[in-house]
UniProtKB/TrEMBL annotation:
Residues 1-234 form the Major facilitator superfamily (MFS) profile domain. The gene is Slc2a5_1. This is GTR5 protein. One of its GO terms (biological process) is D-glucose import. InterPro entries: GLUT, MFS_dom, MFS_sugar_transport-like, MFS_trans_sf. GO terms for cellular component: plasma membrane.
Length: 234
């Protein structure tokens, strides 16, 4: 292929991750309500494993289409994990919620740093090892798939969606240890009463809702500022 076509293919391989992220984040809310938070996180790792396998085998098969497909699936996984901070916030005790919320951002930055280091030409950023580097995320997805089934479901999901009071209290004790959690349980009951009858909106319905325009504008301005400040280039 010509140099222009190679540039086009390379650009598409890079950007298709964001397209997958859009698809993943758009369906994350539905999956978390339909299957529960824990199962949704488990499902999110399946595209990551598939994407890692495709990118790992792409060099052996000599197929750039496999790299595109792998990047797309990896993006779907990344988009679905957007609700991870929400889950970690809900399952953590009140006194630790601020700290737990920050850990998602910290480990995201740490993961990017590790990826940059592994991508150095002295490590995995070589002509012989680049496919290993691209498929490295599959290892993390596999670890999550192995260990997540042993964790309890989110307490708010058990109480509000499943109306399982006993399961909610059991999950609290599993996550927080033995103790009296009636205060936290009462808070969840009050939250359930306040949100009773509230419809869960999809993305298009949120965009059509005038009452959330100030929040949406604030988020968009913040995200655009981050993208345009030069941080990504650095």
């Amino acid at each position: 292929p010509s140099a222009e076509m190679i540039t086009l293919m390379w650009s598409f391989i890079v950007s298709i991750y964001s397209i997958g992220g859009l698809l993943g984040s758009s369906s994350a809310g539905y999956l978390s309500v339909r299957f529960g938070r824990k199962k949704a996180l488990l499902l999110a790792n399946i595209p990551a494993l598939l994407g890692a396998a495709l990118m790992g085998l792409s060099r052996l098969c000599g197929s750039f289409e496999m790299i595109m497909a792998g990047r797309l699936f990896s993006g779907v996984c990344g988009g679905k994990l957007a609700f991870l901070p929400v889950v970690s916030n809900k399952i953590s005790p009140k006194k630790l919620r601020g700290f737990i919320n920050v850990t998602s951002t910290v480990f995201l930055a740490l993961g990017k740093t590790v990826a940059r280091i592994l991508g150095l030409r002295d490590l995995l950023g070589t002509e012989d090892m680049w496919n290993v580097l691209l498929s490295f995320s599959g290892l993390v997805a596999l670890i999550q798939l192995l260990f997540l089934p042993f964790f309890p479901e989110s307490q708010p999901y058990l109480l509000m969606q499943k109306e399982d009071k006993a399961g909610c209290l059991k999950a609290m004790k599993q996550l927080w240890g033995e103790g009296n959690y009636h205060t936290e349980f009462d808070d969840l009951m009050k939250e359930k009463a306040m949100t009773k009858g509230t419809k869960i909106m999809n993305v298009l319905e949120v965009l059509r809702e005038p009452s959330v325009y100030p929040q949406l504008c604030t988020m968009l301005l913040l995200l655009l500022s981050v993208q345009l400040c030069g941080l990504s280039a650095v």
